[in-house]
Structure formats: C-alpha cells, structure tokens
Write a structure and sequence with these properties.
Chain lengths: 418, 418
C-alpha cells in the first residue's frame, strides 16, 4: 500500500475515533487506562523481547550509546510505564468543565466548555516509553492520537501499541483511538504534519533539528519546545544563602534538562561577595565557567565568554556568567538572549520581584526558586506531554489541559437576536 | 528602501514597543485610547478627505460597489470608530491577572499569569475602521501591532495611523506600538507572515481566499476564520414557537454574516408540522429553499439540494433543508459538513440538549438560541478582533483575552529541587 493510502486510512480511523473519545466518560477512560496496564503486565515478556530485538538491531547498525540508552526498556522503566498509567488515571478529567457561565442582557447564558482538540499527532525519537505516556495523556483528555516513533524502536512500539488497542477495546472504546504508525517510511511524517483534515495538532518531541524541520513544513498547528536557555538573576538585594542554593541547584541538579540554568546574571553590587564562593562550588562540581570581563576579574581562571555563549543551551556542566548593573540590565539581557523558557530572580526586594514577574516574557517566571521546578510533575499537572516555548495556546509544561481547548456554550429559551 | 529592510525596521520597532506595552498600566492604555479619540476628532476633516481620495481612486480603478461601500468612511462610521475606542477603554484589562495560585508539596506556589502575546500582525481588506478597532484591541491587551490594510485604503489608513501614534505618544507610550505598513507592495505581506522573530501571531481578516493563502504560507501562527456553515437542528421535542422564531431569526436576521444559519435540519417526526409553515415565512421573506427529497415532498416548489449545498456558506437568502431521523443523524450531518463555527439545537428534551452541547465540536454550541448570537458583543467581550474557527488557542469570538496567553509564575523562598 502506498504511504498516502496508508495514512488516509489511519487518518479516517483517527477522526472517527476522536468523536467517540470526545464523548467517553471519565469512567470509560480510566477503565481503558487500567486495562492497558493489565495488558502491558501480561505482555511484559513479549514487550521486553521486542525491545531486545530493537536493541540488537540498533547495536548492529551502530547507534550511539546515548541513543541505545534511551531505546532500552529496563525492568525499572517498564514499571515506570505502568505507574504512569495509574497516575494519569488518577488525574481529574478536564473535558466538559463549564466555566464563567453568565447571563447576558439579551437573556442568553454564555459560558466556556473545555473540549478535546480532536486528533493529536506525536512525533518522537527513540524512547519507547513515550508511546505509553503520550497515549495515556491523549486518551484521558478525550483525544485520538496518531503516534510516530523512531524507526529504531519499531518493534517495541508495535508491541506496546497492541496492548493499548487491547485496553481500549476492553473498555468499550475504539481500538483505533491510539494508532502507532507501523512503517519506518519517512514519508509518513510528511503525511502526518500536512493533513489538517485528519490531525488537529502536532507535538514533536526530540532534538531541535527535528522540531525546527517539522515546524517549518507543518500545515497543522504545532505545540513545540525549542531551546531551554534559562537564566537566574541574583539581585543585589538577594539573600546570600538563597542565592547560593538556587544558583547551585539550577545548574548542577541535572545538566541535561531543558530547565537547567545556562546563564547566571549577577548584580554588580553583590558580585564580589557571591561570585567567588559560587565559583568555588562550581569548580568542585566540575562546572566550567565562561564569563564577561567583570566576572573574570573576580574569579581566577574563568574562561572568556563569547557572544555565542549567551545564546547557548549547553545541556552540560558549562555555565555562562555575566555581571549586570541591576534589574533592568538583567531583564534586557534576558529579552535579548533567552529562549523564553524559564527565568528566576533571587531577591528580597518586593518591587523588583513584582517587576520581574510582570515583565519577563518567558513561559515560567520565578522568584526565589530554582529553574529546575519548571516541570509538569512539580507544577501539579501529573504528567506532561512536553514543555511549550510557543506563545499561543499553551506555554510551559503542557499536561491534560494543554491537549484541550474551550468552546462557547449558549443556553437559551427560544432567544433570538433583535 | 527594499521591502526586507523596510520590514526589518518595522519589526524591530514593534518588538521593542511590545516590551513597553507589556508593562503599560491600565491607566496608560486607557489614556492612550482617549488621546487617540481626541486626535481622531481633531483630524476628522483630514481623515474624511483622505478617505475621499481613496474613494475617488477606487472608483477610477473600477472597484466594485460592495468594495467601495466597505471602503467609505461616512460620518456615522466615523462616530462608530470613536465610540469603539471608548468601549475598549471601558473593558477590564486582562493583563497580569493571576489565577489558580496554589501551594505545591515542595513548598513553591504556582499559578498562571495572563500576558500579552507580543506583536500581533493584522492583515485586512478595504474597511478603514478595522485600523482603529484592531489597534484599540491590541493596545488594550498590551500588545504591539503591525497593521496591513488594503492598498485601496492607504490614504485613509495613513491618516488614522497618524492619530494612533499621536495618541500613544500623548499617553507616554511608544508611537511605534501600532504601525501601519505604509506601502502597497504586496511583498510586505510575505514579510509580515514569515518573521516569527518580529511577529507572534497573525490575524487575517477578509475573504476565504486571502485567509487560506496566508495560512498556507505563514511561518507565524495564524488565528483564523474560514467558513461559517452554521446549522440549526429542530428536534421532534422542540417547542413549536421557539423553533419557528429561531429558524427564522437565524436565517433572515442578516444574510451576509458568518453566524447566519445555512442548513436547517429537522427531525422527521416533527417535519410535517413545522416545515410547511416555516417554508411559508421563508417564501414571504424571499429565501430560496434547497431540500432533500423528504423535505421537497412536504413543501411544494422546493428546489433539490445537491451534495454541494450541504457544504455551502451562502451568505445569501438561500437555505439548505434536510429531514433527519433524529439527534444522532443531525450530529452526524453536522460532523460531516459543518465548518465548526456555530450550531444550535431547538429542543425541550434535557438529555438531548446535554448531548448536543457535549458532543457537537463547534466553536459555539447553543440550545434554544439563534446562531446569530455568536458574536463578541453578544458574548460580552466588548469587541472582537475576529471569530476563530481554529481549534487551538481561541475558538469562536476572539476579544482581548484571545490576544493574550498565560505564563506560569512560581513563587518561592529559596526553594530548590530535591
């Protein structure tokens, strides 16, 4: 079958299933999640065997160690998938919530009702656990999903997809509500992102190159995450201990995450007090510092930052450091270089905290907290389909609510417009 | 100056102004709206003279009567623009509203803050009043705007733009917060829709052809309105008088609006009671009916509907009529043919009303009310920048809130992630 025909069938099935899913009750959806977990447990051995096949093929084709690590389904990761299903089942159902229902002078009542988006397309790379996480979130939010995993994970994804369909059907929902594209043909991605009649939104997960390519070519709206070039600004009215704790946690808690601090901004009036002890901790932890001339004057051996460093999302034990005159200069730097992901100010000054919160235009803006908190679990979303760096629809961690939107409902009693 | 350079300058100015606008207080913004109104009143004669110039050029170049009508600034329309400014000033400021601020187990407080989108690009055709309406909504919602009106309205738009800048400056806001693209070069649209570094969202207003073209070519998110193929379904448990009133109002109150009913669905069990008297009223009002075979059997002289009629947005005194078995068939028809703009059910049956509200996936879903209510003013938005038929971000009438989104705010006291 040609890829267009294949996708036509997938698309029609998804669109039809999405109508079913939109009216599924919370009970239906939670039962499906439980049934998927049951099927996964029963098929544990065959899923792990399928994954072993992908691992062997990956090794044979020379996949690098990082990719192989992401591909591998260990017993621990398998259990995490099951636990993820249970967590999503425990979340409140966002669908159908009516808010702000008000009478208008005409006598009609007007309100907002939360509704699924329809069909969500997810494009991701090697991790097979995304298959189950994404399926669970789309299902619970009343959407149908079309999942396109990496070709290196095809056997794992196929085995997991069989469990998902089995669980959906066991709960009386359409087995096609979650479909995994079962071909490694790259043209399938082209179809998925260019058919608004079948797909309402695309969530790409993966490297920046993949996401930029998809955004450029898509004819369907994309909820995307590009860089996480996050900043912490230590104000001259910062509490010393809080500033130390936050600057260390934001950089060194984990290096490879998108909410890790990549540039530290320090107010000039406090720099000589805080930068040297901070630099000592970073040195101890093996973090390389790249600074502006003023920072280098305070810390022996600090490398020189180039213009490019201010743009960089290192995802590594490297930190750019800049001394700024104060709040305005810090916010100017952020406006110029930040990827609008997450920024934090450390200050005891009420007015500056309020200004930072109001004026910094990033998806998460923090006062006296580590950027590492920018995460769906920490925010109480229960789970996240991704972190959006877009400005429309959803910003920051995207959970169930980000997979819905609101329609208007109008209640009348024979009302007509005069 | 080349168009790329020209737009580069416009874009940089808009981006810089957007940071100012984001932190402007409600007082600043309302003062600017008032100052714009004052400037407009003072420049009334020169604006009307500029419009006369456009009208003369339009007549000379053979613009059709409908376009000339939209282009003309009568004294009444001029006063409406002034009134519009006052209405927008009276609206609440959506910016900065913090909602759902909650403590998390980690001790951080997490909430949502409503923030401007940044820079809004508006592309529209002949009506010069859009210049002032769009400017007012963008300004009040804390955004900068780049407006691209039709070349036929360039003198009118230029004169209005001068008043807008004057008012902004008088209120201490950047005069470049609202810029009108002052060239008739069509390449300017290409720049506007393809520079995400300068423009955060595009709102095109105009014919379907324009909007489809812009959506296809845009590299910036688009909030768009395509068709308004709206349906009314008269259930067999409808109240006769309400059904008559709504079906007549939804079709005949105005023919050229996007919330006008274009297809009437009637439950078979009530069709012989309601269709003949309805058809008599439509005939009296000059509405042409195009029906399914069952409808035609009940109403003498009704034309036959083709498959194309079910897709049609007539914007004219024509109505497609179909008899359906009941609620499920009506919702199937809507799912297949509707443009997902506005649909209404007329019924006294509680369960069917609830199902229609929950299951019909349109931007406005109504019970016992005329589709003509789907409008920003009727919904209490005060004004609308347009009506979205998209599924993400904003559905239906888009007012100030639709020109904003929500970022996360995190408040801590030195909190770090463990």
């Amino acid at each position: 079958m040609k890829i267009e025909q294949y996708f036509e069938q997938i698309g029609q099935q998804a669109r039809a299933a999405s109508r079913h899913m939109a009216r599924a009750t919370r009970g239906d959806k939670d039962r499906a999640l439980a049934a998927i977990a049951t099927a996964m447990k029963q098929q544990r051995d065959s899923i792990l065997a399928a994954n072993a096949k992908d691992m062997a093929a990956g090794k044979a084709s020379g996949l690098d160690a990082a990719l192989l690590d992401r591909l591998e389904l260990t017993v621990g990761r398998f259990d995490d998938m099951i636990e993820g299903l249970e967590q999503v089942a425990a979340l409140a159902d966002p669908v159908g919530e009516i808010s702000n229902l008000k009478y208008r002078p005409s006598g009609i009542q007007i309100g907002h009702m939360r509704v699924p988006l329809g069909v969500i397309g997810i494009i991701y790379e090697s991790r097979p656990n995304v298959t189950i996480d994404a399926a669970a979130l789309c299902l619970k939010s009343g959407n149908a999903a079309i999942l396109r995993g990496g070709s290196e994970a095809i056997h794992s994804n196929r085995a997991i997809a069989a469990c998902i369909s089995e669980g959906l059907i066991a709960a009386g929902l359409p087995g096609t509500a979650v479909q995994v594209i079962d071909t490694t043909d790259r043209a399938a991605v082209g179809e998925l992102i260019s058919r608004p009649e079948y797909v309402d939104v695309i969530v790409p997960r993966g490297g920046k190159g993949l996401i930029e390519r998809i955004s450029r070519d898509a004819r369907v709206p994309v909820i995307k995450h590009l860089d996480g070039n996050c900043h912490v600004y230590i104000d001259d009215q910062a509490d010393f201990d809080k500033a130390m704790a936050i600057a260390i946690n934001a950089k060194t808690h984990r290096y490879g995450t998108c909410n890790t601090m990549e540039t530290l901004l320090v107010a000039a009036a406090i720099a000589d007090k805080i930068l040297p002890p901070l630099a000592a901790v970073y040195a101890e932890k093996g973090v390389e510092l790249r600074g502006c001339p003023a920072s280098r004057a305070l810390v022996a051996g600090m490398k020189e930052a180039s213009e490019q460093d201010w743009h960089e999302e290192y995802l590594a034990p490297i930190l750019a450091v800049k001394i700024v005159a104060g709040l305005d200069a810090a916010m100017d730097h952020i406006a110029q270089y930040s990827s609008a992901h997450t920024e934090s100010i450390v200050t005891e000054n009420w007015t500056r905290a309020r200004r930072f919160l109001a004026e910094v235009d990033s998806s998460s803006v923090m006062v006296n907290a580590s950027t590492r908190f920018a995460d769906g679990f920490e925010y109480g979303l229960g789970a996240e389909i991704g972190i959006s760096t877009d400005k429309i629809h959803a910003r920051g961690p995207v959970g169930l609510e980000g997979l819905t939107s609101q329609k208007w409902v109008v209640l009348g009693d024979g009302h007509v417009r005069g």
